[in-house]
Specification:
This protein is an alpha+beta fold. It has 2 helices and 9 strands. Helix 1 packs across helix 2.
Length: about 170
């Protein structure tokens, strides 16, 4: 699922105007050697709910294949957009949310729903000497909380006629 999340976020970020190769996993500290703007992704634990629903039936010959949903799961991802320009960040945020799809199919053919839950804008506090603000590096960040909802499924094959024996007619 993590690979799918990276692909979806990177595609939306490129459409919104982020330069290529700027989507990465979360770093431990704000590293000055990493260029801004960029997006850092942090993954929270997945939450599973047991369902057991039947999603699909397919009949072929003397067998029936049932696709069952074993679990429904939610994965929350924090996408932290780090920038040096507040105006760029505002325009990018709008374009990024608009570029995120409603959902995609995973490699198993199951639908993965994508929602933006929250977004938090932040600026570092001012560093002042008297009445003067000292600004060495400009920084503006926006933290998006994205929720990916997906399924764990299993195909079960059932024989409609498990076995049969044709007995010869005896006596008459």
């Amino acid at each position: 699922m993590h690979k799918l999340v990276f692909e979806v976020v990177e595609k939306a970020a490129l459409e919104a105007g982020l330069p290529q190769g700027r989507v990465m996993a979360q770093v431990s500290k704000d590293n000055l050697t990493l260029e801004r703007p960029r997006i850092e992704l942090a993954f929270l634990p997945e939450v599973y709910r047991r369902t057991g629903r039947t999603l699909d039936w397919k009949r072929s010959g003397l067998s029936l294949t049932r696709k069952r949903e074993l679990y429904e799961a939610d994965l929350t991802v924090y996408a932290n957009v780090l920038s040096e320009d507040e105006d760029w960040l505002s325009d990018f945020s709008h374009a990024f949310v608009a570029a995120l799809p409603k959902g995609v199919n995973d490699k198993h053919g199951n639908w993965v729903g994508i929602r933006v839950e929250k977004a938090t804008f932040s600026l570092p506090p001012d560093k002042r000497v008297g009445d003067t603000v000292i600004e060495v590096f400009k920084k503006a960040d926006k933290l998006f909380e994205l929720k990916f909802t997906f399924r764990i499924t299993k195909d079960e094959k059932h024989d409609l006629i498990p076995d049969f024996n044709i007995l010869p007619k005896t006596g008459a």
